[in-house]
Amino acid sequence: MPVRVLIAEDLYLLRDGLVHLLQAHGCTVVAAVESGPELLRGLVELRPDVSIVDVRLPPTFTDEGLQAALEARKRVPGLPILVLSQHVEQLYARELLADGSGGVGYLLKDRVFNASQFMEAVHRVADGGTAMDPEVIAKLLASNSRHEPLGRLTPREREVLAAMAEGRSNAAISQRLYLSESAVAKHTASIFAKLDLAPSDDDNRRVLAVLAYLNAVK
Amino acid sequence: MLRTLARIPVVVFFAAVEAATFLVAFCLGILAIGLGMVFLFPPMVGMVRPLADRARRQARAWSGIEVAPPYLPEPPPPRPGPDGWYRVDRTLYRTPRYPAWHSRFRWLLRDPATWRDLLWLMLDPLAKLLAVPFLLVLPGPAARAYALWVRLLLGHTTASRLAGRVQHLTQVRSIAVDSQAAEMRRIERDLHDGAQARLVALGMTLGAVEQLVDRDPAAAKALLAKAREASAEALTELRRVVRGIHPPVLAERGLADAVRALAMDSPLRVSVEVDLPHRTEPPVEAAVYFAVSELLSNAARHGGATQALVDISHNGSALRVTVTDDGAGGADPAQGSGLYGIERRLAAFDGVLALHSPPGGPTTVTMEIPGVLPTPWHGMKKMPRWKTALVLGLWATAWCPLFPQGLVAACFKIFNAEHIRSWFLALYLPPAWQWPTIAFMITLGVIMYAFALLLPAAHTDEVERCRFAS
Question: pLDDT tens digits, residue range B378-394?
Answer without folding.
Answer: 445 677 888 888 989 99
